[in-house]
Amino acid sequence: MTVDEDLEKLLENLPFFIQENLKNHSNKENLIEIVMDLGRRPEARFHSGPEYLSQKIVSWQDLDYTIKRISKFSDDNRAGIERTLHRVSCIRNRQSLINGLTCRVGRAVFGTISIIRDLLESGQSILILGKPGVGKTTIIREIARVLSDEMEKRVVIVDTSNEIAGDSDIPHSGIGRARRMQVSKTELQHQVMIEAVENHMPEVIIIDEIGTELEALAAKTIAEKGVQLVGTTHGNCLENLIKNPPLADLIGGIQYVTLSDEEAKRRGTQKSILERKAYPAFQIAIEINDPNSWTIHEEVTNSIDLLLRGTYSTIQTRQLGPNEKTNISYTKLQPTSRALFQSSRNLKNITTFSNKDWTVLSDYNVVKPKNVKTKQLLVYTYSLSNNLMKEAVSKIGIKLILTKEIRKASLIIGLKKHLKQNLKLKKLALEYNIPIYTVNHASVFQLTRLLQFVIDQKL
Q1: Is residue 434's pLDDT more than 50?
Q2: CA-to-CA separations, 3 to 30, 112, 140, 147, in angstroms, rounded
Q3: Which residues, including other chains, have CB under 8 Å from residue 374's CB and lie 6 or more apart?
Q4: Strand ranges (E), 264-352
Q5: Which H or E element spans position 391?
Q6: What is the mean pLDDT of residues 385-410?
Q7: Which residues cross the membrane (predicted)?
């Protein structure tokens, strides 16, 4: 893996007292960005953490020195340095005067996508998710080079902020033979995406930072035209897209569905559920946990469906080990470990899952249920299907014994609306010191959460 960073071209545009401290810095190869805020000491941010560069505070003259040596700031307050990948972003005061600069180091890292080379060769569209600064732009820059140079595909990059191919009319060599389309205004990115398909016959389109509903719709339109997409968006995982209505179309869109009583009973769910609306624009999703550890969803449709149902899902993790060897492992996640909470302008009446879906009747919860420590529960169920209870218990790996004798039960579980009316059962539970738990709905999801709570609390 080799790195081309042109760091000197960034440093020579900074005030001398900052240059002096960074040129000979022992950790400069791990530099992420330099922050210059008016009236504060300049700060360098490394992978290991931040560090002050000088005792001298930044003045108006220091900011002006840098501003005059870089390109003009666009409407998104970003500028660049000619023929490099570095980015300079500004902060303005209420009079639109610049009082802060963030100088991001841009690097072309050759070989960084060897970990997903097989996915690129599949020809499927790939969505890359990660928090800011994790290296998404560096990854898609290398993807552009590999697809255009090594796989000889016609690649067009929609480069809104000139971060992928640099701030110059001549693209940086880091993108290989890929062509770059610049965007005059940030809000026009979706139009340039469509224009790229209609005018330049690409086999692959690469987009950085898909962030609006119009851009998500444009990506969906491009996918329907049979063009391979590679895009990035902010978010730690797929659940973030489900909870983000403007971007939900990237993974097929989410809709609110009301099931019939029979169908809800067959599925073991509530009548009101969420379902995927359409086929996603991206078939593969990659979550960038850190530069050397990526989570892969090879079938986005399957991953989204499992998340919405609240069932088990298996995720693939790829790590780059010593000698650049790729290690692949699989992890089975329980539904409670990645539970979904809905927030959508179009889904205002959806019932969300939380601890309020079940209740501990504390008046009867005065002793520890018997046998919990041995992971064995004797449960007396009231107005709940035994098969439903067994399915819920099988998901958390505990031994369940259903009993018809209240005196022998470790706990009682039933539907809230029915238990409220059974005064005799409440009296017996109080007499034998048996805790009672109620759920609002007879669903596997709620029962699983309740039983997991019992085990975790070691009641």
Answers
A1: yes
A2: 11, 9, 15, 19
A3: none
A4: 272-276, 284-290, 293-297, 313-320, 326-333
A5: helix 386-394
A6: 78
A7: none
Comparing CA positions, the residue from 140, 216, 149 lying closest to residue 176 is 149
CA angle (51 as vertex; 49, 54 as ends), nearest 5: 170
Residue 49 within any structural domain of the chain? yes
Contact 225, 205 (CB under 8 A): no
Provide, rounded to the nearest whole percent, the portion of the chain with pLDDT above 90: 39
pLDDT at residue 2, rounded to an integer: 62
**Is 87 a domain residue?**
yes
Cα angle 199, 126, 128 (rounded to 5 degrees) comes to 115
DSSP designation for 38: B
| Residue 373 DSSP one-character state | G
The stretches of 146-282 forming alpha helices (DSSP H) are: 189-200, 213-224, 238-242, 261-267
Rounded to whole angstroms, how far apart are CA atoms 265 and 442? 9
Residue 341, pLDDT above cutoff 70:
no
Residue 178 vs residues 174, 203, 274, 441: alpha-carbon distances, Å:
9, 11, 40, 55
Strand partners, 438: 359, 414
pLDDT band for 457, please (50, 70, 90 cuts).
Answer: low
Give the type of residue at 339.
Answer: A
Which residues have CB under 8 Å from 335's CB, separation 6+? 310, 311, 312, 313, 395, 445, 448
CATH of the domain at 54: 3.30.450.90
Residue 400, C-beta contacts closer than 8 angstroms, at least 6 positions apart: 376, 377, 379, 389, 390, 393
Q: How far apart are CA 86 and CA 205, in angstroms?
A: 23
Residue 54 main-chain phi, psi, to 5 deg:
-165, 160
Q: Are 338 and 331 a contacting pair, CB within 8 Å?
A: no
Structure tokens at 154: 């016609």
- Is 441 among the domain residues? yes
pTM passes above 0.70: no
Examine the fold and report which residue of 57, 78, 104 is the final residue of a domain before the chain moves on.
104
3-state class (DSSP) for residue 451: helix
What's residue 262's pLDDT?
A: 80
Domain match, 327 and 367 both:
no
User: How large is the C-alpha radius of gyration of the chain?
Assistant: 28
